[in-house]
Design brief:
mainly alpha, 57% helix, 2 domains, 12 helices, 261 residues
């Protein structure tokens, strides 16, 4: 006979046998990897930002070579960007200087600056900012005195002052005399230099005079056989090049040019 203790122990053993014990998995398949969240590397972001900055054009204001007060005159980025476009041509050594010497130095000075402005779209502020560097000797003193008395003005205003100062009645009288006294000598004068000098004198005196009228006035000064010989070689209206070519042809045959009239 089993004791009570043995009966309880036997009953407890039967209950445990009914409980399924988990068996270790014998599968050889490796555990699946849980996908991680993809994240853009911070370095790639910085590289992209750097590349974007490199592709963006940077305007270097130092290429303008302006004086200290230029930042008060050029206020918009568009004007600065435009000024950067003519960096190469507007170096100081390539700008004209004004000495007040010669028959029409002031006219050539203004004409060259106007050409720069038109061709390179140079703003007026740039011209007035470097204007003090383009005057020489006593002309620079005149500029400083005008600037002190009248303050800052645009380039058109300065052109009016230059014309008023140097293209006065005394200058016009001298220029008219120089034009009338200059007579082309076929034996010693060079056609191109003589013709262009006379043309520059008339252009300085009469800016609105047409090229045809300029040629007629110069041709009339030749007079006589020379005028007739030039007219025979040119078909009106003729250009300055036609005029020069005709005079070159005549001077080349100067020994017997009258026979070819």
């Amino acid at each position: 006979m089993l004791s009570e203790h043995q009966k309880k122990k036997l009953a407890q053993g039967k209950d445990n046998s009914l409980v399924e014990t988990p068996q270790a998995s014998t599968s050889k398949n490796p555990p699946q990897k849980v996908p991680k969240r993809t994240r853009k590397p911070q370095r790639a972001i910085r590289t992209a930002s750097k590349r974007q900055r490199q592709s963006t054009p940077i305007i270097d204001r130092n290429v303008l070579n302006l004086n200290n007060d230029l930042h008060h005159t050029i206020s918009s980025n568009a004007e600065v960007e435009t000024a950067c476009n003519f960096e190469g041509i507007t170096r100081f050594e390539e700008w004209p200087t004004f000495s007040g010497e010669g028959e029409y130095n002031h006219m050539e000075f203004m004409k060259t600056i106007d050409m720069f402005k038109e061709h390179f779209s140079i703003p007026y502020e740039y011209i007035t900012a470097i204007l003090h560097s383009l005057f020489n000797n006593s002309e620079k003193k005149w500029y400083y005195k005008m600037r002190q008395d009248h303050g800052k003005h645009s380039w058109p205003w300065w052109k009016e002052q230059i014309i008023s100062k140097w293209a006065n009645d005394s200058w016009r009288f001298k220029m008219e005399n120089s034009f009338e006294e200059a007579i082309f000598n076929i034996e010693r004068d060079k056609p191109m230099s003589c013709l262009l000098k006379q043309k520059d004198r008339l252009t300085a005196l009469h800016p609105d005079m047409s090229e045809t009228m300029i040629h007629k006035r110069i041709l009339k000064k030749c007079g006589g056989d020379l005028e007739y010989a030039i007219r025979r070689r040119c078909i009106e209206p003729f250009s300055t090049e036609d005029y020069i070519n005709a005079m070159e042809d005549i001077t080349t045959r100067k020994k017997n040019w009258k026979e070819l009239v």
